[in-house]
Specification:
By secondary structure, this protein is α/β, with parallel strands linked by helices. The protein has twelve helices and 16 strands. It has a seven-stranded mixed β-sheet with strand order 9-8-10-11-12-15-16, covered by helices on one side. A five-stranded parallel β-sheet has the order 4-1-5-6-7, with helices on both faces. Helix 4 links the parallel strand 5 and strand 6 (about 130-135). It is elongated, with a radius of gyration of 25 Å. Residues about 1-25 have low confidence and may be disordered.
Length: about 375
């Protein structure tokens, strides 16, 4: 039977629509020539040095990957960083998270502060965008979002480290102080509980905010309470201010055990103030503790004319693991990349294994206790040894 003109037109139209749909689907699966990676860190304010270090680590990795001829599905791809300043502020963190989503990033390495990571997390999760954070508060992965991934051990393990090491100090009268943030208050509460298990007396428990630097009042309370050791989750610049206040009243015959935000190069200035010693627990192990650390330090110094300040070697490794996930997924779709991050044993060129468990925690993370010796932070004991 001869086909009518109308039937012929309908058939041609359907054929064209099918072809267009096929092209559209092919376009969806096509790997773009540029893939954007978000970096969200504090790039201004008191924690700018730490945020800059995290950014430097990602930049170093991206530069190396691009130079090596990064390819996905045998197609050349350029990795591009979209960096934003979260200012260590939760509201700003949510704002810049939306900016990164709008910019079309496929994953985000951020944030530094737990409070910021927690607030920004649902924004990334809504679009299936993996968020690789160095934040340590357990509430981050307790959100129950598939996209929340942590680069280091959380504060449950760090609190146990503080309790274990603090319990072994020759001090019986402790003070516990924090910076009022989700990270600081949560870790301090956990540490206080561990110290009580070790039969230590906590004679002072006090919270501040994360910007306070006036500590004459606290110094006076420490002296009045005959405190022998301070457990602190204050930031490095705050602890340095506290040390100055203690020097003014000649009360330095005590020790201080801080969290990971004091294990910085800036904190080395306070090395000789306390007669009982200055210690820090941290999930951020020093680059020189790894066999590949010396090479990383050489390359980092050449690129940025300075030493790493905090966790740049972890963000460097995170970028390599993320790039591997993109290659394995053969896709720039955020959901596919997030899924892949759970499916393989990632490898950081410096720190080694970076394997996420079903909750987004590091399967093989450890905590180390550090003391300042000979002008640098030196590991005293690690959690995998006790």
């Amino acid at each position: 039977m001869a086909m009518s003109h109308r039937s012929s037109v309908v058939l041609k139209t359907l054929t064209l629509l099918a072809a267009a749909s096929a092209l559209l689907l092919a376009g969806c699966n096509r790997v773009p020539s540029t893939i954007r990676i978000g970096v969200a860190q504090p790039m201004s304010g008191n924690l700018a040095a730490l945020g800059q270090d995290m950014h430097n680590g990602v930049k170093l990795a991206v530069d190396e990957l691009n130079k090596s001829g990064f390819r996905v599905k045998d197609q050349p791809v350029t990795l591009e960083i979209v960096a934003v300043d979260d200012r260590s502020d939760a509201a700003t963190g949510k704002e810049v998270a939306r900016q990164l989503v709008d910019a079309g990033v496929v994953a985000v390495i951020g944030h530094l502060n737990s409070g910021v990571s927690i607030e920004a997390a649902p924004i990334y999760a809504e679009k299936g965008i993996a968020q690789l954070a160095i934040s340590t508060n357990p509430k981050y992965t307790d959100l129950g979002l598939k996209t929340t991934l942590r680069l280091v051990a959380n504060d449950n393990l760090q609190a146990k480290a503080i309790g274990s090491f603090g319990g072994g100090l020759p001090a019986t009268r402790f003070a516990v102080v924090d910076d009022g943030t989700p990270y600081g208050k949560g870790l301090a509460d956990g540490a206080a509980a561990e110290l009580k298990k070790a039969k230590k007396e906590i004679v002072l428990r006090q919270s501040f905010d994360d910007k306070t630097t006036a500590f004459d009042g606290l110094a006076a309370k420490l002296k009045e309470g005959n405190v022998e050791s301070v457990v602190s989750t204050l930031n490095d610049f705050q602890v340095l201010a506290l040390l100055e206040a203690l020097k003014k009243i000649d009360y330095t015959r005590l020790s201080l055990l801080g969290g990971d935000t004091i294990k910085t190069t800036a904190m080395l200035k306070g090395a000789d103030v306390l007669q009982g010693g200055l210690f820090a627990t941290s999930p951020i192990l020093e680059p020189r503790e790894f066999s590949a650390g010396a090479k990383f330090l050489e390359v980092y110094r050449a690129a940025f004319k300075t030493d790493p300040t905090y966790g740049g070697h972890y963000s460097y490794g995170a970028m390599y693991v993320l790039a591997d996930a993109i290659k394995r997924a053969g896709s720039a779709k955020p959901e596919a990349i997030t899924d892949m991050l759970y499916k393989f044993d990632g490898y950081s060129p410096v720190t080694g294994s970076m394997k996420f468990d079903s909750k987004g925690e590091q399967r093989y993370a450890v905590i180390s206790v550090y003391a300042i010796r000979r002008g640098q932070w030196e590991s005293q004991i690690r959690s995998d040894a006790w």
